[in-house]
Design a protein that fits this description.
By secondary structure, the chain is of the alpha+beta class. It has 9 helices and 5 strands. It has helices at residues 10-21, 28-37, 46-56, 59-64, 67-71, 78-100, 108-119, 156-165, 186-200, and strands spanning 126-132, 138-146, 170-176, 205-213, 216-219. Strands 2-1-3-4-5 form a 5-stranded mixed β-sheet, sandwiched between helices. Helix 6 runs antiparallel to helix 7 and helix 8 packs across helix 9. The longest helix has 23 residues, at 78-100.
C-alpha cells in the first residue's frame, strides 16, 4: 500500500476548525488555502498560499493584486484568480455596507478600513470622492481618476459637477500613496485648496482629505490643513 501524502486530511481538518472555532482561528496562509480549495480540488496548496504571501507581502496585498498580475503567478489559473478577486470584492462591499447607512463621522474607523481595502495596496495613485448628504450619510463613492505611481490627475470642474449631480452637501476626498508614506505633498495641499474653494462656491463642504498608504493614513483635518 502506498504511503498517504503528508497533506492527506488537511483540508478536512481546516474545515472542521472553521466550523468549530470560526474562520478567525486560521492564519493568513490558511485563509488563502481555503479560498483556493474549490479551484484546486486536489493537492497541497499550502506552498502556493505561502508563496503568494511572500510575493505580495500580506493577505490584503494578494487580494488587491490585479487579475493580470495574479494570472502570471505560477500555480494560479483563471478559476483561482477569479475566486481571489471575488473575495476582495466581497470584503469591499461588506465594508461599504458598514458605513452606508450611518453618519460617517461616527464610523470613521470603518471608513478608513473601507478605504484601505479599496486603495491601500494599489500600485498607482487613485483619487476617490465620497459624497455625503446633509446628515453626513454616504450617498455615493466614486473613483474619479487613476494615475501613475506618484500622481493622479484631478479635474476640479469634474469634482464640482459630480457633487452637484449627487446633490451632496459635503465630500470627503481620498487618495492613496503607493510609496507607502501617507505624508501629503505640497501638490496635495494645493489641489485640496483648489477643490475646497470651488466647492465652497456651490455650498458644498470638504469634510476632510484622507491619504491612504501601507504605513498608515493622514487626515488633512487632523493636520489643520482643512
Amino acid at each position: 500500500m502506498s504511503e498517504k501524502p503528508h497533506y492527506h486530511g488537511h483540508r478536512e481538518r481546516l474545515r472542521r476548525r472553521v466550523i468549530e472555532r470560526g474562520a478567525q482561528s486560521l492564519s493568513d496562509y490558511e485563509l488563502l488555502e481555503f479560498a483556493l480549495f474549490s479551484s484546486i480540488p486536489r493537492g497541497d496548496v499550502k506552498p502556493l498560499a505561502k508563496a503568494l504571501l511572500q510575493e505580495f507581502k500580506s493577505i490584503s496585498g494578494v487580494l488587491a493584486a490585479g487579475g493580470e498580475e495574479l494570472l502570471k503567478f505560477p500555480g494560479l489559473g483563471e478559476n483561482s484568480v477569479a475566486i481571489l478577486m471575488v473575495v476582495q470584492e466581497i470584503a469591499g462591499r461588506t465594508a461599504l455596507e458598514d458605513i452606508r447607512e450611518s453618519t460617517i463621522i461616527t464610523k470613521w474607523d470603518k471608513l478608513l478600513s473601507y478605504c484601505r481595502i479599496k486603495m491601500g495596496q494599489e500600485k498607482v495613485e487613485q483619487f476617490r470622492l465620497l459624497f455625503l448628504d446633509k446628515k453626513n450619510r454616504l450617498i455615493a463613492d466614486e473613483l474619479q481618476q487613476k494615475g501613475t505611481v506618484d500622481h493622479a490627475p484631478v479635474y476640479v470642474r469634474e469634482v464640482v459637477k459630480r457633487a452637484l449631480h449627487h446633490e451632496a452637501t459635503a465630500v470627503i476626498l481620498v487618495h492613496n500613496h503607493p510609496s507607502g508614506d501617507p505624508t501629503p505633498s505640497q501638490a496635495d495641499v494645493e489641489m485640496t485648496r483648489e477643490i475646497q474653494s470651488a466647492l465652497k462656491a456651490v455650498d458644498v463642504n470638504v469634510h476632510d482629505h484622507v491619504i491612504i498608504a501601507r504605513k498608515g493614513h493622514t487626515s488633512f483635518k487632523s493636520l489643520g490643513l482643512i
